[in-house]
Amino acid sequence: MSKGLAQIMKQAQMMQQKMGKLQEQAAERTAEVTTGGGAVTVVVNGKNQVLSLVIKKEAVDPEDVEMLQDLVITAVNEALKKVHQEMSEEMSKITGGLSIPGLF
């Protein structure tokens, strides 16, 4: 095996180890988003799990359930987007900007 190919294989193995470590850390990475002027706050992790959902009682209006539903959906989607973006940025650092399908 040529020195160049051996070096490439070594770099690929190191990249794979770093990507594995980042995926393990995904559960620890969190994003928090608040909507409705503080009415709804959600925290998600890098594994797309909702860790916390806080709804202030002032946001609960039996006459306007749809607005509360929209606030929750918006908060969850924005938090997932935020944590996904952070994970993608970290992955980009590891891969040198190379986009690998299926990774964050």
Overall description:
12% of the residues are buried. Helix 1 packs antiparallel against helix 2. The mean pLDDT is 86. The chain is α+β, with helices and mostly antiparallel strands and 104 residues long. The longest helix has 31 residues, at 65-95. The protein has a 3-stranded antiparallel β-sheet with strand order 1-2-3, with helices on one face. The chain has 2 helices and 3 strands, in the order H-E-E-E-H. Helix content is 52%, strand content 17%. It has helices at residues 3-25, 65-95, and strands at 30-35, 40-45, 50-55.
Task: Write a brief caption for the model.
The chain contains two helices and three strands.
Give me the count of strands. Answer: 3
- Rg, please? 19 Å
Listing every helix as H and every strand as E from the N terminus to the C terminus, the arrangement reads: HEEEH
Strand content: 15-25%
- What is the overall shape? rod-shaped
Structural class computed from helices and strand pairing = alpha+beta
Q: What is the helix content?
A: 40-55%
Number of discrete helical segments: 2
Q: What topology, given as strand order, has the largest sheet?
A: 1-2-3
Distance between the termini: 33 Å
**Uncertain regions spanning at least 5 consecutive residues:** none
Biggest sheet architecture: 3 strands, antiparallel
Averaged pLDDT, please?
A: 86
